[in-house]
Amino acid sequence: MKRLIITTFLAAAIVSGCSSTEEVVPDIPPSELYGSAQQALQSGSWVTAIERLEALDSRYPFGAYSEQVQLDLIYAYYKNDDLALGEATIDRFTRLNPTHEKADWVLYMRGLTHMAQDRSFMHDVFDIDRHDRDPEPARQAFRDFKRLLDRYPSSQYAADAKARLVYLKNRLANYELAAADFYIRREAWVAAVNRCQQIQRLYPDTEAARQSLPLMQTAYEKLGLETPAEHAQRLIDLNPV
Questions:
Q1: Can you give the pTM of this predicted structure?
Q2: Distance, CA of 191 to CA of 183 (rounded, Å)
Q3: 236 neighbors 213 (Cβ within 8 angstroms)
Q4: Which of 23, 45, 140, 203 has its CA 20 to 30 A from that of 223?
Q5: Distance, CA of 62 to CA of 27 (rounded, Å)
């Protein structure tokens, strides 16, 4: 039944993608074109907004609206889930405008874009959380938000960035915990210890850090390391799961 649902979903997506046609952007003055792009943004018509903004960007790359067009494209790409294009536009804007007054917002959007890249198909469609999926986008998002707080501690986006760092820290810790559990089930005791130690070192204030302690104790016991196993037991007593 699940296979049928997935197949139907993918087929619908393919048909939808094939049936769309690119609208020809009218050749009108840049002020009018920008105005129509703004209307599309305000109404949430992301595809239309992107078409008009891209036309402005290609037709008038050094025009009066150049910087704002790129900023609007970053937002529109993110809202339309065009994440690769959004990241490329962020990199381009940052390279050309390293001291821009909205540099904190651009860095914040970079973090949001990487967080969106961390979503999995299974989570989006079936609300199934996969802690064991590749966490590289989450790591990048963590670095983005950390850099935002380091460079712009008074930014209006700082509070939200802090909250997202907490989420991302737990996401990354849960990935390491899933890896440690995998190694335990495979009886790869040294690898399990290494993963557990990494959780303790990098994410000591997470739930995953507490949950890793019994795994670490088991691995030490299997390796015949009595003293580390006893130390792990003391930590378990102090931090019950």
A1: 0.80
A2: 6
A3: yes
A4: 203
A5: 17
Separation between Cα atoms, residue 144 and residue 105, nearest integer Å: 11
d(CA 223, CA 117): 39
Phi, psi of 223 (to 5 degrees): -85, -5
pLDDT band at 121; cut points 50, 70, 90: very low
Count the neighbouring beta carbons within 10 Å of the beta carbon of residue 196: 30
Token duo for residue 171:
């996401």
Any residues with CB less than 8 A from the CB of 46 and at least 6 apart, and which?
A: 40, 76, 79, 80
Task: Identify the DSSP state of 135.
Answer: -
* Contact yes or no for 192/219 (Cβ under 8 A): yes
Q: What's the token pair of residue 75?
A: 């937002």
The percent of residues above 70 in pLDDT, for the chain, comes to: 84
pLDDT score recorded for residue 4: 46
- Scanning the chain, the segments in alpha helix (DSSP H) are 2-19, 30-43, 46-59, 66-79, 83-96, 103-117, 121-126, 136-151, 158-185, 189-202, 207-222, 226-238
